[in-house]
Amino acid sequence: MKIKQKDINPYPNSDSNKRYYTYDYYLRQTFGGKCMKIPLDAGFTCPNIDGKCSVGGCIYCSPRGSGDFAADAVLPIEEQFEIVKAQLSSKWKTDRYIPYFQAHTNTYAPLEVIRAKVEAIAGKEGVVGVNIATRADCLEDDVVEYLASLAERTVLTVELGLQTVHDSVAFAINRGHTFADFLEGYAKLRKASDKIKICVHLIFGLPEENREMMLESVREVARLMPDQVKFHLLHVIRGTRLGEIYLEGGYEPLEMDEYVDTVAEALTLLPPDTVVGRLTGDGMQSELLAPEWSRKKTVVINNIDKKMFSEDLWQGKFFENG
């Protein structure tokens, strides 16, 4: 009988050939089956858009602030939920839903506004958890207190965009906060409740950042022992400042092999129990300028799997705690 890769997989948090803690495996272990994650646009902005710390936003961010796959922000949250749910129902067969407040910074508003948006959707039938994307420098004390209370009632994941630990790179992309700011916000969430799950976002391929710098970001994040990590490829989107720089010849995207090799090594540096929420992001296909190979998402993920198998790598293999 032919031996299958999953039968000789040394990584424990897997029931397949995947040598990392996939989000699918996490959902099945946590909720008993697949879940439909529903992107929402609550109509918030960001402090590096409205002038609090900067204007223009991050140089790679689309006008909708990563909310390109959500329904129109002018619609009530409940209506957005139903629209996207209907759109995804042909792809995902499940009665479990996770509303994802994705666009822009979803704790950058008065508490009463945030609470109204979240409570309108958190109690809907079939909702098993709530994900809220935000920045670590936008966590006021009253908002954090509310998040801690929400985590008592549902599986709450707060997604913090870090992107890089290198302040020089953060400045180049107009991130608007430092790594120290991130650490302060992260610690505030951890102190508020051990039930709040924290997901940290990192982007590979940022301007002025080489491979070792990317991996140093992973090492620093790994020391925090986050519940989840998302890896993103930097997409060049039409209509962004990065898009302009690229068209002027001032930015060269990563090649597929570079990205695959970096992600595979990054996974070995993570704690073995950290969920990998994403291996590469999605750019709006109609507005994508580069890299062209990123359109082949399945190929990219398969190549990462092949790389880890051929070199006998798995998540946590080289993780150093402390």
Largest sheet: 7 strands, parallel
CATH superfamily, please? Answer: Aldolase class I
Give the fraction of residues assigned to helices. 25-40%
Strand order of the largest sheet: 1-2-3-4-5-6-8
Order of helices and strands: HEHEHEHEHHEHEEHHEEH
The end-to-end span amounts to 43 Å
Q: Total helix count? A: 10
CATH class membership: Alpha Beta
Computed CA radius of gyration, to the nearest angstrom: 19 Å
Strand content: 5-15%
Structural class: alpha/beta
Uncertain residue segments:
none
Describe this protein's structure:
By secondary structure, the protein is of the alpha/beta class. It has a single domain, classed as Alpha-Beta Barrel (TIM Barrel), CATH 3.20.20.70. Helices cover 35% and strands 15% of the residues. The strands form two sheets. The protein has a seven-stranded parallel sheet with strand order 1-2-3-4-5-6-8. The termini are far apart.
